[in-house]
């Protein structure tokens, strides 16, 4: 057994803590059954189930309805079309769908980020509990009134917005959205137990009386054109594969860089400062960790998938109750239990395999005005600019580009350009400077003076 192999299984104490957490969720939440899984480094390392019926506990192959987790799958389909050049996220909806005219100016990005201003639900009756054939046309999906807020101005969750995105996928691909999903996403990822309709073995949906320990059956409903907002059924085994994909990507489906783009926070956050949204992905901060994923609910079912990129951990919780168990908090706690009891083993530090003398000459101390920064050289010619006085939004990583510039990856300089302007003696010369988004970084505070915009007092530094 190698050193790495020794950490692929969870410790017995950790496994018991995970089981205790879902047992509490099932008992206090009064749900007929609950299934959960933890994924570490792309591999399912723990599964657990609880049931109110002895001898009939679900397993990793038991389907549950996953509700709005469906939206993650639709978002991936839209980004696939974008990456293929078949659409742009700034496209107005009307470029791809002739109807509904009232929503034709809304952009695909606004629909993905819930900033379109569309109503949260369709016009009545309650779409989650009524047949989809009551809404046969796309225009039947919108609320009354359809638009509640100015487009792009604020976050407002919209189920019809994702139904419209599903219709865009169908229009561009010329096939039903669920067929496209099966062919382009589920098949390549081996997710053969994720389907629009339930397939045995699957859990039955139940409502639990709020003041008595009695049940009411929740019959499954085919939601028609609203299906892209919450129709799918899946298992903890399949969602474990989905979590591994969302963390690392799969070039057969979507690249890691596009998935990273999807989980970047939008410019219009939720009012809750611990919650935000990316392109179809929910972002939260829980227990001191940044998590991404999505929750889901349909009559009779609750679902949650959270992923911690830093810890390379994911947790899935599925329950067959209309309300009761706090599946989101449970999934976050499962991540916390593993991360705190068995923290991730860092990868070994390794030196660079190639050294560029010009880049090596750039490393070290730089000054923006009087603020001191250290410039470090990382793998793949990546540069890291760090303010020496402590954490700062001006600190950032920069990715090397083919044209000899670098692009900021985070902080204040996210997306900004870093350019190296060599001095008369080359990169190591004292008059070499960095241009970072128009700001000049020099080897000495405010020097050489001729490089500093606006010049420098010719008397130089002096005592008072």
TrEMBL record:
Organism: Streptomyces pactum
Domain Beta-lactamase-related per the UniProt entry, residue ranges: 27-338
Annotated transmembrane regions: none
Domain of life: Bacteria
Domain DUF7586, residue spans: 355-443
Identification of the protein by name: Beta-lactamase family protein
Gene3D superfamilies, per database record: DD-peptidase/beta-lactamase superfamily
Pfam families named among the record's database cross-references: Beta-lactamase, DUF7586
């Amino acid at each position: 057994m190698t050193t790495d192999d020794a950490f692929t299984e969870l410790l017995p104490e950790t496994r018991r803590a995970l089981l205790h957490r879902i047992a509490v969720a099932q008992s206090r939440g009064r749900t007929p059954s609950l299934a959960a899984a933890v994924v570490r480094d792309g591999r399912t390392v723990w599964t657990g189930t609880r049931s109110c019926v002895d001898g009939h506990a679900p397993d990793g192959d038991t389907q549950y309805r996953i509700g709005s987790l469906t939206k993650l799958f639709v978002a991936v389909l839209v980004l696939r079309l974008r990456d293929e050049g078949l659409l742009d996220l700034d496209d107005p909806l009307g470029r791809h769908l002739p109807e509904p005219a009232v929503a034709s100016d809304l952009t695909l990005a606004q629909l993905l980020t819930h900033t379109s201003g569309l109503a949260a639900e369709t016009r009545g009756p309650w779409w989650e509990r009524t047949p989809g054939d009551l809404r046969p046309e796309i225009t039947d999906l919108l609320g009354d009134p359809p638009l509640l807020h100015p487009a792009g101005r604020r976050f407002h969750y919209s189920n019809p917005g994702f139904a419209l995105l599903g219709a865009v996928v169908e229009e561009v691909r010329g096939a039903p959205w669920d067929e496209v999903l099966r062919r382009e996403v589920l098949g390549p990822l081996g997710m053969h137990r994720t389907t629009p309709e339930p397939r045995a073995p699957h859990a039955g949906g139940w409502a639990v009386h709020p003041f008595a320990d009695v049940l009411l059956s929740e019959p499954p409903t085919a939601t028609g054109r609203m299906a892209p907002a919450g129709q799918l059924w899946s298992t903890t085994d399949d969602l474990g594969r989905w979590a591994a994909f969302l963390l690392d990507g799969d070039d057969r489906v979507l690249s890691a860089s596009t998935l990273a783009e999807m989980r970047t926070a939008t410019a219009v956050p939720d009012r809750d400062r611990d919650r935000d949204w990316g392109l179809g992905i929910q972002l939260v901060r829980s227990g001191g960790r940044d998590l991404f994923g999505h929750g889901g609910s349909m009559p009779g079912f609750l679902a949650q998938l959270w992923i911690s990129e830093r810890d390379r951990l994911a947790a899935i919780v599925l329950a067959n109750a209309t309300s009761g168990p706090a599946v989101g908090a449970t999934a976050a706690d499962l991540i916390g239990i593993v991360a705190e009891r068995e923290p991730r083993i860092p990868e070994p530090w390794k030196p660079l395999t190639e050294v560029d003398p010009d880049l090596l000459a750039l490393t070290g101390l730089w000054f923006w005005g009087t603020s001191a920064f250290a410039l470090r050289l990382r793998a793949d010619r990546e540069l890291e600019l760090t303010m020496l006085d402590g954490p700062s939004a001006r600190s950032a990583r920069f990715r090397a580009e083919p044209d000899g510039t670098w692009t900021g990856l985070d902080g204040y300089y996210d997306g900004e350009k870093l350019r190296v302007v060599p001095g008369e003696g080359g990169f190591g010369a004292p008059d070499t400077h960095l241009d970072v988004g128009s700001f000049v970084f020099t080897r000495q505070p405010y020097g050489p003076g001729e490089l500093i915009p606006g010049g420098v007092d010719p008397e130089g530094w002096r005592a008072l």
